[in-house]
Design brief:
Layout lengths: L3 H7 L4 H22 L3 E8 L7 H24 L2 E6 L7 H13 L6 E9 L1 H18 L9 H7 L10 E4 L18 E4 L9 H15 L6 H5 L3
Parallel strand pairs: 1-3, 2-3, 4-5
Helix pairs in contact: 1-2, 2-3, 3-4
The structure holds farnesyl diphosphate.
The site of farnesyl diphosphate has 20 residues, from α1, α2, β1 and α3.
């Protein structure tokens, strides 16, 4: 969800205003995704690297996150959405955890769609954490190191608990993954769009999905399944 800062700067407003408009885009896109029957949507809402931003901007983002969780709570529950969070959640401020944790618990059984928020998230950090855990298990003799393969690591990667991504979409013109879902990106289609995130609307999501459909030319088959072994 790139481009909030530039969106604000173009209007002569502080970056925080861009994040606020970005929050509104998040609400829009979650609603559309739910309506379309998308089974899982993972949003890169705050990266591990984002902690290095100015204190005021980090606080504004954390405030918007809390506001989103509180204001969308009812709609998330009523629409059968399961909310999960991935990343180094221990670094999040208490006020965010107080909104996040109960909603994750309450929505746990929901099955219509999974909304995964990547918070304080970094894909390399995520992979390192899994590697550390497996190394410790091997040291204890709980697993055989020779049994460690791509499937075993994949089964432990938290961001893949919602399934492998079919499509990874980045707004704002940059064509990089920036430490997002690196393990799961192995077979994903990538879509880069020039629009700044606050300007992202329904037709833009449709463009991305149409591009995905044209490229894969297979309808109704989950791509992770389709691509297994390719
Ligand atoms: C990148 O834009 C975006 C972020 C660092 C944060 C994304 C956050 C939101 C969309 C709002 C809060 C999230 C939720 C889930 C309610 P940038 O600031 O790097 O933009 P720039 O590249 O134009 O500077």
């Amino acid at each position: 969800m790139d481009g909030n800062g530039r969106w604000a700067t173009q209007r002569g407003e502080p970056r925080e205003a861009g994040h606020k408009a970005g929050s509104a885009a998040v609400r829009r896109v979650v609603r559309i995704a739910r309506r379309l029957g998308i089974s899982a949507l993972t949003l890169y809402a705050f990266s591990e690297q984002n902690w290095a931003r100015p204190k005021g901007e980090v606080e504004a983002l954390m405030g918007l996150l809390e506001e989103f969780l509180r204001s969308e709570r009812e709609e998330i529950l009523e629409n059968g959405i399961r909310l999960v969070a991935i990343g180094d959640l221990g670094r999040l401020p208490e006020h965010v955890r107080q909104a996040l944790d109960p909603l994750a618990r309450e929505s746990h059984e929901n099955e219509k769609m999974t909304l995964a928020l990547a918070l304080s998230y970094g894909a390399r950090e995520e992979i390192a954490e899994v590697a550390r855990a497996l190394a410790n298990e091997a040291l204890r003799g709980a697993i055989n190191p020779d049994a460690i393969d791509g499937a075993l690591i994949g089964a432990r990667i938290p961001s893949l608990s919602v399934g492998e991504p079919d499509l990874i979409l980045r707004t704002g013109g940059e064509q990089r993954l920036s430490n997002f879902l690196l393990y799961g990106a192995a077979h994903a289609e990538l879509f880069f769009c020039e629009k700044l995130w606050p300007d992202f609307h329904e037709p833009d999501l449709f463009d991305a999905i149409r591009s995905y459909q044209t490229r894969t030319k297979v309808f109704g088959t989950p791509s992770a399944e389709r691509r297994r072994g390719t």
